[in-house]
Amino acid sequence: MRRVLLSLALVGLVGASVQASILTNTNQSVPYIRLLSRNATTDVDAAYYNPAGLTRLKDGWHFSLSNQTIFQDRTITNDYLLLNERKYVGELRVPFFPNFYAVYKKDRLAISFGFGPNAGGGSAKYDRGLPAFETAIASIPLLLTSKGLPTTAYSVGINFEGESAYYGFQLNLSYAVSDMVSLAGGVRYIYAANKYEGSITNIMINPKHPLLNPTGAMVSAPAFFAKLGPAFAYYAAATADMAVDAKQTGSAFTPVLSLNIRPLENLNLAVLYEFKTNLKLKNDTTKDDVGLFPNGWETQSDMPAILGLGAEYSFMPNLRAALSFHYWFDKDVQWDSPSTPEEALLPRINLIDHNSWDLGFGLEYDVSPMFRLSAGFLHTDIGVNSDYLTDLRHELGSDTVGAGARITLSDKLSFDIGALNVWYKTASKSIAYTIGTFTETYKRTSVSLAVGVNVGF
User: Fold this and answer.
1) Which residue from 396, 397, 394, 405 is spatially nearest to 380, judged by alpha carbons?
2) CATH number of the domain within which 371 lies
3) Which of 359, 364, 234, 237 is nearest to 308 (CA)?
4) What pTM value is reported for the model?
C-alpha cells in the first residue's frame, strides 16, 4: 500500500494540470486556456473535448498545433519546532506542453486524431527536499540529548527532482445520424513515463562527547554513531548517504464515447464519457537506498472515469457563451489498494470524501471577422480528505481565470493566444510527532501562457 500511494504521490508532485482531477489534465488546447469551457465545442480541439461535434466542421482537412508554458510553485510550510527552516518550495517549470489535432471531415463522417499529455507533463525540483525527508533528521539532536549527549544542531543536503508525463494518443470516429444528432466513439492509448532522482547526503550533528567530540563541533552523523558502538549501528546506517534513481513506465487504453445534439441553430449540447483507465507502472530502478522503488515492482496508477457535459449558446452571430461541467469518479479508483498479501490485511485508508468536479463558463466576442476575444472562469472542487494530504501528495481546489484571442487571417489559417492564472485554496493538516502535534500547510500558485496555429484545407 505504501508503494502504491508513493507512486501516486510522486506523479502528483510533477503534474502539470492547470487544475483538474487527481490524475487528469484538462488543459488540452489554447482555446481552453482562454475560455475554460470547451465541452460543447465543434472546433478542431473537439477531437479531445467533444468528438461527436466534429461532424459540424466543413468538409476537408483540419489541423491544430499548440504549446503551453506553465509556471507553478508549490509551497509547503511545516511548523515542527526542530526543523532548521520550515518553508519548502518546489518549482515546476513546463516549457513544452504540446497538443496536436488532425481531423478529416466528409459529409456525415469525421475521423480525428489527438495527442497531448493527459496527466503529468512536467518536471519539479525541490532544492531542500520536503518535510517528510527532514523531520526525522531534525529529531536527532533531541534523541542524543535524551541519551546524555547534549546536541543542539544538525545540517543535511537534501534534493529531489521528478519528471512525469502520461502521453495520450487518441483516435475517434464521428458520424452525424441526422442534422441534429451526432455520435462518436474513440480510444486513447496512454503511455506513462516517470523519472525520480533524489538524495540525502552529508548529515552533520554537534553532539558533545568527552572523548569523541569534546568541543561539540559539527561532525559526520554516521561516523559519530559508528564510533559509539554496536548499540548505535542502526542510527549509523540510517544517517548514511542515500540516493534514488528510478524510472516507471506503463501503458493502457481508454475508451471514449461522445454525443452531440444541436436542437436549435444557436444552441449546441454535448455529453462525453471516458471510461476508467486501468494503468500499471513498472519500476526500472538504478539506485534505491531507501527501498521505495524495488526494481521490477508494479504499482497501480489508474485514471478515473470522467463524465463531461457542455453547452454553447449564440446570443447573436458575434457573441457566444459556453458552459462546461466535468465529474471525475475518483472514488472508483482504489489508489490505496494493497501491493502485497500482507498489506491486504491492513485497514483500507479512506482518501476520498467525494468525487471531484469542475464548472467552467466562458464568453467569446468577435470584434471583427479577424479578431475574436474570449475570457472564462473555472471553479474546481477536489474531494480528497486530510488523510490524502501530505507534502508528497496534495491536491487543492481552485478558481481560475483565463483570457485570450483568436486572429483569423483567412478561412484556412488562424492563430490562438491565451493566458490564465489559478488561485488555489490553502489546505493544512495536523501531524503528530514525538514532541507534540504540529501543522503542515500546502499552497500553490500557477500561471500558464499558450499559443497555437490552426490550418484547414
Assistant:
1) 397
2) 2.40.160.60
3) 359
4) 0.90
